[in-house]
């Protein structure tokens, strides 16, 4: 089944590529992808592969097809992954800020610096260079 040597694709990357090739297909329904992992660390140890193909009406892509798909769509996948990672980090920071603002205001303090910081965090995705170059705003002093 399909695998790639030059880039050790994860099963998430392989599923993304298969959905680019066959829009509307779903990993776990139309096909099943997987990759080997180390038992102790769960670190990926081998490239992703298609372990089951349930769509007889669609051709199973070859290694060459997968390689071409990665060359065409790999940057898009990496951009999406970087954006998701940055948004997850930002959302965690926003949650912490909300807690801090509530604590300050519950104590009768002025949380305006924290509100400005929260706005700057919300604006991070609009920065030029997002998601690969991010200028995280400075956290106010407590």
Key descriptive features of the protein:
2 strands; 142 residues; 2 domains; mainly alpha; disordered N terminus; single chain
Write the layout of secondary structure elements.
Elements: H1 11-21, E1 31-34, E2 49-53, H2 63-106, H3 112-122
* SS strand fraction: 5-15%
Uncertain runs: 1-5
Question: How many β-strand runs?
Answer: 2
Report on the biggest sheet.
2 strands, antiparallel
Question: What is the 3D form?
Answer: elongated
Q: In whole angstroms, how far apart are the ends?
A: 56 Å
Numbering strands along the chain, what is their spatial order in the largest sheet? 1-2
Roughly how many Å is the radius of gyration? 21 Å
Helix content: 40-55%
Average pLDDT level: 93
Order of helices and strands: HEEHH
| Class per helix and strand makeup | mainly alpha
Number of domains: 2
Question: What is the helix tally?
Answer: 3
Describe the structure.
- With 142 residues, the chain is mostly helical.
- The chain folds into two domains: 11-61, no CATH class; 78-142, no CATH class.
- 46% of the residues lie in helices and 6% in strands.
- It has three helices and two strands, in the order H-E-E-H-H.
- A two-stranded antiparallel ribbon has the order 1-2.
- Helix 1 (11-21) crosses helix 2.
- The longest helix has 44 residues, at 63-106.
- It is elongated.
